Amino acid sequence: MTDANAHKIGVDGDKFGKSVHGGFKCNDCHADIKEYPHPDKPAKVQCATCHSDQEAKLKGSVHGDGNEHPCTSCHGDAHSIFPKADARSTVYPLNVPSTCGKCHGNDGMAQKHGLASVYPKYVDSIHGFALNKEGLLVAANCQSCHGSHGILSRKDPKSPTNKANIPNTCGTCHAKINMEYMDGAHGKAIASGKMKAPVCTDCHTAHQILQPTESEFRMQSTPICGSCHKDKLSTYRDTFHSQLGSLGGYVETARCWDCHGAHDIRGKNDPASPIHAANLVTTCGRCHRGANVQFVQYQPHANAHDRKLNPALYFVRLFMNLLLAGTLTFFVIHTILWLVRSRYDQVKSKSNGGNHA
Amino acid sequence: MPELVVEAERTTQTTAPTGRFFQRFTRSQRTLHAVLFTTFLGLAATGLPLRFSESIWARGLAGFVGGFGAILFVHKFCALALTVAFLVHVKDLVTRAFARHEKGIFWGATSMVANWKDVKDIVGHMRWMVGLGPKPKFERYAYWEKFDYWAVFWGMMVIGFSGYAMWFAPFFAHFLPGWALNAVLVIHSEEGLLAILFIFSIHFVNTHLRPDSFPMDMVIFTGVESEEEFKHKRPLEYQRLAAEGKLEAKLGEKPQSWYVRFAKVVGFTAITIGVVLLILTLTAYFG
Question: Using CA atoms, how far apart are residues A100 and A46, in angstroms rounded to an integer?
């Protein structure tokens, strides 16, 4: 590109002409440049002159104090900025993750600010897959949850990624699940300010969200519930459900949410709960064909060490343990004595042991 | 060790080989033992990853013994085979007792049923071990052999019943109280663990690895043992048969050397697998 006096300008005029700012003259933005040759250091272009709203939001955001030019870091080359609905734009929905990933997929950058390197996790997530592989414009990209100019730390109560706001943020797309969640015990707890209750990201994670029916998610889901429900996890670990389920390939054995439900988890006294006494035959029957009223007397969280809660089981376990310990103790002593004595006799009589057929 | 009481009849141990072999186990008894130990190894190898599913080796062993998904199939297949073997044995006992009226099954010198002599033998044997008395003379089945037999008999009924109760839980729920559905897993896994620990340590040492039989007692594979070993291990049975004039009727043939080699490979493989499983069990139990 050349100007009226045939001076070469290091800007691709063709590309600039097609860009969103293509109709502007150079000094609309480079207001300080009035003559040729130019000053040694032209002043930084102030995008805020026109984009004051965005500038104001950016100032209050986590990116507000960046040393780099705050706008071009995301919008790319200043002379080829396209509208966000244009596939050539760096902030077109399908391009947002790779744009953010330039910094947030970089271990050095992430470490400097104490952030996790989230881009690779996002790419492997169900959202990343939908966006990159399927090209779904509606798939959540970074700014769907974090916003764009006014990104706030999750510690900020106004942030869409603040724990209290997560259900509504995810609920923007997952509206029905959000409604179910708010009906369940966890949603009600969060609504009443009990912030220890889990929100979407506590179970699904934030960036590495997996398809819940995938074996990888089924394998990791139980310890997540167990991180709060410790006593229930330990009694679950004693059952066949857990023993088989821990072996990796057995994704079909019952995990917490197969019986308790996932989003609208309810107490066992709630008639709508899958673990309410009246619903057990149906719930267990989903896996156990032929489940009947007697069958559901089985306790999936029985504690063989609790004499008050499960007396019969307690004494059965005690008997079995004593039988095991008693038998082995007697025979270990018996066998060791026998070994010593036999060997002593053998050495004494200089025999080489039995002659075996 | 205190001064040991010198055995009067040490001669039994030092007699020169006569080259004669005596029949101890029939072909069907040896087959029963072979089915028992192969299915038992299969059951142990597929049951242990479940019992210790949290241990570091559980996933690896489960993958090794048939892969995920096949492990339960292998466990159930071995269980069915062992159940059939058990029922064949029980049928054999019933036939011998009630159709052929063999009284020796329930009592007497050749019976598996414990008697007063066994009680005296336990005490006497342990006194001998610590040098307080002579070594007892054993009959056809010594007390620890009877214990092995009944432990397996009881174990198969307990483990088998609790196993089938889990396999067909909705059906068994018609007869069993609710808590029993929880108890069957505890019973199955603890009794299974006892069987594994007992067989892979006590039975291996008592029967195969003790100095009198080291490294392996081949009689369960060949069915016969040499005259001197017979005399040394079960002097009472030898004397009784000799006195009754039935010794010659028990004469067997020296086993073929290829068969002995084959049996040793099978036997040592079984013992090795057992010892590996025992070590894994102990690391998981105390780990």
Answer: 22
